[in-house]
Amino acid sequence: MKKLEVAKTIALNAELSADHGSEVLNYILDTITLALSRGDVVSLPNFGSFQLSNRKARVGRNPKTGEPLNIAASTSVRFKPGKGLKEAVATTLIPNTRENAR
Questions:
Q1: I want to staple 7 with a disulfide (CB 3.0 to 4.6 A). Which of 18, 21, 40, 96 is the partner?
Q2: 70, 57 in Cβ contact below 8 A?
Q3: Cβ neighbours of residue 84 under 8 Å, at least 6 residues apart?
Q4: Same-domain status, 85 and 45
Q5: Residues of 68-86 as b/e, b for ≥16 C-beta within 10 angstroms?
Q6: pLDDT tens digits for 2-33?
Q7: For residue 55, is it within any domain?
Q8: Do the beta carbons of residue 83 and residue 48 sit within 8 Å?
Q9: How many CB atoms lie within 10 A of CB 49?
Q10: How confident is the model at residue 102 (pLDDT cuts 50, 70, 90)?
Q11: 101 inside domain
């Protein structure tokens, strides 16, 4: 499901125009982004939480040449699914695309 499809679903369920559904989704995403940029944890009960995670600098290897590479420290976003989301998808089976490709 892509962003436009999510916006249309929001609009349909909230009885809004497609443009307003897109605006609502953009406001939600902007709010989450702003909170994370300030270092806040965004917790959505039964769905999950978003928080920042710091990665330390480390030495990696170029897989092609085996040559060592310095990988800089970085910050990324971590999502931890909530109980409601886990239960909702617990019985959903996604076919293994690697096995299907054979």
A1: 21
A2: yes
A3: 45, 46, 47
A4: yes
A5: eeeeeeeeeeeeeebeeee
A6: 999 999 999 999 999 999 999 999 999 999 99
A7: yes
A8: no
A9: 14
A10: low
A11: no
Does 97 fall in a domain? Answer: no
Distance from C-alpha of 50 to C-alpha of 23, rounded to nearest angstrom = 21
Global pTM reads 0.75
pLDDT at 101 over 60: no
Residue 28 amino acid letter: I
What span, in angstroms and rounded, lies between the C-alpha atoms of 26 and 12? 16
Q: Encode pLDDT of 66-86 as tens digits.
A: 999 999 999 999 999 999 999
- Per the structure, the count of domains in the chain is 2
Residues 6+ apart with CB under 8 A from 8: 18, 21
Query: Rounded to an integer, what distance in angstroms lies between the CA atom of residue 74 and that of residue 92?
Result: 33
Contact between 53 and 44 (Cβ < 8 Å): no
